[in-house]
Amino acid sequence: MNESIIYQELINFISKWVNLSETDIKALQSKLSLENYDKGDIIIKQEQICKSVKFVISGIYRVYQLKDGKEITSYFNYTSRNPIVASFVSLLKEQPSNEIIECILPGTVISIDYTQWKSLYEISQSLNTFGRLMAEFNYLLAIERIESLQYQNASDRYESFIKLYPDLLNRIPHHYIASYLGITPESLSRIRKTAVRE
């Protein structure tokens, strides 16, 4: 698949939110690059400053933090849900990231330097609007995640996970899912067995 076809996938995604002119598209494409990752590749390291935004074309990516040697998964990024990959606090504040972003299923992303992305806001109202809509979208994802951890029990969080990430259950290691749910792998196994019986 050549670059122009791959870039068209991003154009198609943005076009679901806003109308892009040919000028918008040419300006955007001039700033894009492709990156390929293998399983286990670290895209953002802890304490590294995130300086780019990436759009998932293929593969699965995990955002997590290390707390007292324990991995706590915050999000999974892939095409069907949450395809924008970045450590957003690091990106927006220009400070070292508390998060690690890892490729867990090989794939390709489209990357754009965040400074260059922001420069597009000045020449394209549509891309400016898209940036705002994506900020709102990510805010809602964050609130959804916080409320899940605060107000749902482990079984309810598992049910929510299945609804939010239906494609992932049999594609990624279950200890990653347990980490996302805030439980041990053993607890996840018990919850899954109960869910099957029901």
What is the number of helical segments per DSSP (H or I, 4+ residues)? 8
The H-and-E topology, N to C, reads as HHEEEEEEHEEHHHHH
Separation, N- and C-terminal Cα atoms: 44 Å
Largest sheet: 4 strands, antiparallel
From the spread of the alpha carbons, the general shape counts as: elongated
Helix proportion range: 40-55%
Strand order of the largest sheet: 1-8-3-6
Summary, kept brief:
With 198 residues, the chain is α+β, with helices and mostly antiparallel strands.
Features:
198 residues; alpha+beta; four-stranded antiparallel β-sheet; 8 helices; elongated
Give the arrangement of secondary structure elements.
Elements (H helix, E strand, L loop, with lengths): L2 H13 L6 H8 L3 E5 L4 E3 L7 E5 L3 E8 L2 E8 L6 E2 L2 H6 L6 E6 L1 E7 H8 L3 H27 L2 H11 L9 H8 L3 H13 L1
Describe this entry's structure for a reader.
The protein has helices at residues 3-15, 22-29, 88-93, 114-121, 125-151, 154-164, 174-181, 185-197, and strands at 33-37, 42-44, 52-56, 60-67, 70-77, 84-85, 100-105, 107-113. The protein is elongated. The longest helix is centred in the C-terminal third of the chain and has 27 residues, at 125-151. The model has no long low-confidence stretch (mean pLDDT 92). With 198 residues, it is α+β, with helices and mostly antiparallel strands. The chain has a four-stranded antiparallel β-sheet with strand order 1-8-3-6.
